[in-house]
Design brief:
Blueprint: H1 7-16, H2 19-27, E1 34-35, H3 36-40, H4 47-59, E2 63-68, E3 71-76, H5 79-109
Antiparallel strand pairs: 1-3, 2-3
């Protein structure tokens, strides 16, 4: 069952609201783990700033981290995004119905 309200969904959307965090997730979309250093490379921000973004993603359940020696490897965890997608699908149906009504109205007026 999908919860349409709750702290998990709120954390997911809050984490996805930031463009840097979305870019970090995009780097992980292949499913392969990447080190924090690799993830930080494309950004013009400090490594501690990247770590803070990863903390937010981790707290939202969107990223898991494994430490091996001195290397921290991150992997994407898509479960929370599935819940967010199910929430968004409700509104997709609304927009599709609205657009279908608009298309029908345009067709009627064009006759």
């Amino acid at each position: 069952m999908v919860k349409y309200q709750g702290p998990e969904l709120d954390r997911t959307f809050a984490a996805l609201a930031d463009p840097t965090r979305r870019a970090l997730l995009m780097q992980l979309e292949s499913g392969e783990g990447r080190s924090v250093s690799e993830l930080a490379r494309p950004f013009a921000i400090s490594l501690p700033a990247v770590m803070k973004h990863l903390d937010v993603l981790s707290d939202a359940g969107l990223v898991s981290r494994i430490k091996t020696g001195r290397t921290v490897t991150c992997r994407i965890e898509a479960g929370p995004m599935e819940e967010a997608m199910q929430w968004l699908v409700r509104y997709q149906k609304f927009w599709e119905a609205s657009l279908d009504r608009l298309a029908a109205l345009v067709e009627e007026s064009g006759e």
